[in-house]
Amino acid sequence: MGGSTIGLTEPQAMTGSFASTVLREAAGIVLAALAMAWIHTAVNPVPGHASAGGAPSGQPRLVDWREIEGLVASGAAVLVDADTATLFATGHIPGAESLPLSELPRREPAFRARHGLSATLIVYCADPSCPAAHAEALALSGTYGFRDVRELAGGHAAWRAEAAAGEEAPR
Amino acid sequence: VRTLSLPSALQCAAGLVLLWGALGKLLAPQVFLADLITYRLGLPDGALRLVVLVLPWLEAASGLLLLVRRHAPGALLVAGALFVIFAVATGQAVLRGLDLSCGCLDVSLLGMRSDSAFARLFDSAPMAFVRAAVLGSLCAFLLTREKRGFHPDTRG
Question: Which residues of B fall within a CB distance of 8 Å from A142?
Fold first, then answer.
C-alpha cells in the first residue's frame, strides 16, 4: 500500500507521531517540574504558618497575646479579624476590626486610608487551623505594603483561653 | 545575522511571561498562597500547597524551553494548559464578582510599585483573564504550526 505506515495513511501516521511526541515531551516537563519542586521543598520550608520564635524573612512575625496586649489596650496596634463577617458577628476579640480575607482587595483602600501603611497590625482568625490570618497577614505586608504586620498565634481561640485563664487566676 | 520570525518571537514572549510569573511565585510563595486562597476555588489546604509548590516550576520549565526553543511542542502543550487553568480561575473570579489580585505577574520585579494604579489594573482579575486567554490561544496557534512543520524523521 503506497504511502501508508502499518495500515495508516501518511498524514494519520504523522499526526499520531506528533501527538506522541507532544505528550512525551509534556510528560518530561511535568516530571522535571515535580523533581524541582521536590528539591525546592527539601531546601526551603513548605509554605504555611510561620513557626513561633522567629519568622523567616518576608513572613509576618508570629506573636502571642501577652506580647501585644499592651499595644492593643493603648491603641498603638490595630487588631484585624480575617474571618468572614458572619464568623466575626458570632464572636471576636473586643476592639478588633473585621477585614475578611475574601473582601481584602475591595476593602483594603479604605482600611489603608484609616490606618496608614505604618500602622501596627495584629491579624488573627478563629483558631490555629484557619489559614485566613496567615494569608491576610502575608497579603497586607507583601501585596499591599503595610510595614508592621504581625500574626496572633492561636487566633481567637488562644485569646479566649488566655481570657479564661485570667478570670480563673487568683488575684 | 539570524533574524527571529514572528511566531518564534511570540513563542519567546510567551516563555518570558511564564518565567516572569514563575520567578515572582518562587520568590514569594507565601504571597502566592495568600492570592490562591482569595480565589476561593474550594480546594483543600493540601491541594493549595501542592499548587504553590509545583505550578511555578511548571511555568519555569515550560517558559525556559519556549525561550530557548527546545522541545517546543511539549512546552507549548504545558504552557497552553497552564494558561487555560489561569483563564478558568480568573474567569470564575470575574463571574463571581470577586475583586482580587490575580497574583500572576509581580510588577515589582520590573521596578514598578505594586500599589500603583497601573499595577492594580495589570493585576486585576479581568485583565488577567484576557491575558491568559490571549496567551492560551497563542500557544494553541503555535502548537498547530509546530504540527504542520513536524517531520518524524528529524526527531528522536
Answer: 28, 30-31, 34
Q: Of B30, B136, B58, B129, whose CA–CA distance to A29 is shortest? A: B58
ipTM: 0.85
CA distance A89 to A96: 11
pLDDT digits (tens, 9 = 90+) for B47-56: 877 898 899 9
pTM recorded for the entire structure: 0.64
The residue written with cell numbers 513548605 in the block is A46
- Burial label, A20 (beta-carbon count in 10 A; 0-12, 13-18, 19+): exposed
pLDDT at residue B34, as a whole number: 74
Beta bridge partners of residue A63, listed in sequence order: A152
Contact A33 B60 (CB under 8 A): yes
Residues of A with Cβ-Cβ distance to B146 under 8 angstroms: 18
Q: What was the pLDDT predicted at B1?
A: 53
Alpha helices in A44-131 (DSSP H): 65-74, 85-90, 104-115
Higher model confidence: residue B100 or residue A84? A84
Partners of A123 in beta bridges:
A80, A151
Are the C-beta atoms of A123 and A88 separated by less than 8 Å? no
